[in-house]
Structure formats: structure tokens, C-alpha cells
Amino acid sequence: MPRGRRLRQNVDIWPGFVDAMATLLMVLIFVLLVFVLAQFFMGNALTGRDQALSRLQAEMASMVEQLSLERAKSADVKADLTRLQEKLQASLAERDNLLSSLDEERHLSETARSQADLLNQQMTAMRDQLEKLAAALDATEKLSVEQKAQIADLGKRLNVALAGKVEELQRYRSEFFGKLRKVLGERQGIRIEGDRFVFQSELLFDSASADLGVSGEQQVRQLAKTLIDLSKQIPKEVNWVLRVDGHTDKRPIKSGRFPSNWELSTARAISVIRTLIDAGVPADRLAAAGFGEFLPLDNSDSEAALAKNRRIEIRFDQR
């Protein structure tokens, strides 16, 4: 092919290429424009959707808050309703109690009326009895002066008789103690103090023992013989008794047989009583008592005081 022809062919192609490129560029620009517009509209649509979503979320939050408030109000209403129901139940129970009390009061009122009627009847009967008693009192007052004089006279005679019995008993006591002193002799540890004949415990018993020794039993039998002889002279109407009192010192007992001085003093008095009974003294004329360490003759702590407090007292007394 000749060179000039090839050149003409190249020149003819370029404008078409340019047109094609221009067309392609325009298409690209159009596509870009469409894309930009689509992006713009989509952005606006998304923005509107976000705003709507935000509004919806705000509305939902408000609704949730209102729902919470409604629920709280509902709980308060339920609590108020529960309290009202409780008050209603309490009121009903109080009403029932009042009705029951009212029924009881009605019943009590009827009972009270019945009791009042009964009391009126009893008071009427009591008035009748009082009238009868007043009449009887009027009748007896006439005799009271004479009876008072008789009672006063009887009292005087009784006092005279008692004084005579006491004097008579005192005479026999003095005689008994006098004979007993003669029989037992003037011995240390035996003495008369007022209306009592006193033996020191050492004359009758060993230490912490309630068993009479040989010498002690002999002295108690002499006492029994003297008492039997004297009792033959005492009139039967003189109701005499011989009382034997046991006493200890204040030192605690160390014997396993006697838990305390009470038991020791009582056992010693009973031991003397048994010996008197064995010697012939009637048991109904004898009495025994134990006083422990609680009636001392001497409150000091000396050996002499302790020995003085350990004693057996014989009382000739009226029963």
C-alpha cells in the first residue's frame, strides 16, 4: 500500500476514537452524577431514618418511663387496697367482738337482775332474822347483868384456885428439890438455879456421848426414887410433869453419830427420860427437849463458861 493512502486511513480513525472516548466520558460523568445523586438521596433518607429512629427511641423511653410510673402507681394502689382490706377485716372482727360483748352484756344483765331479785329476797329474810335477834337480845340483856356478876365471881374463884395450884406446885417443887439435894449431896456440878435442878453434862455423860455412864445412871435412878416418893404426896388434881432439857456448848460436834448439837442435846435428854421410865417414873409425867447451844448460861469463850453451858436441866412444872 502506498504511504499516502496509509496516512489517510490513520487520519480517518482518530475522530471516531475521540468521539467514542467523549461518549464514554459522558457516560462515566452521567454514571458518576447518578451515583452522587443516589448517594445524596440515600444520605438524606438515612439521616431521616436516624432522626425517626431517635424519635422512636425517645418516645419508647418515655413510654417505658410512663409504664414504670404506672406500675409503681399500680403497686401503691395494690398496697392501699391490701391495707384497706386488712382494715376491713379488722373492722369486721371488731364488729363481731362488739356483737359478742353485747350478747354477753345482755346475758349478764339478765343474770344480774336475777341475782338482784335473789339478794332482795335474802335481805328481806335477813331483816326478819335481825328483828328476831333484836327481840332475843332484849330478852337476854335482862339476864346479862346477873350473868356478868356470876362470870366475874367465877373468874375470881378461878384465879384463886390457879394461884393455889401454883403455890401448891411451888411447894412440891421446893420439897422435891430439897429431897433431891439431900439424896445427891453437895457435889460440884450439881446446883439449883431458880426452878431448875442443873447437872453438868460431865457428871452424866462422856464427851460427845449420849449414853449414861455408871455414875450418871446411878444419880438418875436416885432422882427417880425421890420423884416417885414425892408423887405419892401430890394430889391427883395437880397436873405435874418433869421436863428434862439438854444443852451443849457452842463448839461444833465432831462425832459421826450426831450431825449437830441439836441431836446430841436431844439424845441426852431422851437418855435421862428412858432411865427414869426404867426406874418406875410414869412416862406420861415426863417430857424431853433439846436446845443445842442456843440457850447458854455464859456467853464467854472460856473453858469454865463452855463447861457451864454443857448441862442437863430438870424442871418440875405444871403441864
Structure, briefly:
The protein is of the alpha+beta class. The protein contains five helices and five strands.
Structure, described:
- 72% of the residues lie in helices and 9% in strands.
- It has 319 residues and is of the alpha+beta class.
- It has two domains: 1-159; 186-318, 2-Layer Sandwich (60s Ribosomal Protein L30, Chain: A), CATH 3.30.1330.
- Strands 1-2-5-3-4 form a five-stranded mixed sheet.
- A hairpin with a 2-residue loop joins strand 1 (190-193) and strand 2 (196-200).
- The chain is elongated.
| Count of helix runs | 5
Order of helices and strands: HEEHHEHEHE
The main β sheet shows up as: 5 strands, mixed
- Order of strands in the sheet with most strands: 1-2-5-3-4
Radius of gyration: 66 Å
- Beta percentage is 5-15%
**Total beta strand runs:** 5
Mean pLDDT: 80
Terminal residue distance: 191 Å
Global shape: elongated
Overall structural domain count: 2
Q: Which class do the helix and strand fractions yield?
A: alpha+beta
**Low-confidence spans: pLDDT under 50, at least 5 residues?**
none
**Into which percent range does the helicity of residues fall?**
over 70%
Secondary structure layout plus pairing:
Elements (H helix, E strand, L loop, with lengths): L2 H182 L5 E4 L2 E5 H4 L9 H18 L8 E8 L13 H18 L7 E5 L12 H7 L1 E8 L1
Helix pairs in contact: 1-3, 3-4
Task: Name the descriptors.
319 residues, elongated, 72% helix, 5 strands, 60s Ribosomal Protein L30, Chain: A, alpha+beta, five-stranded mixed sheet
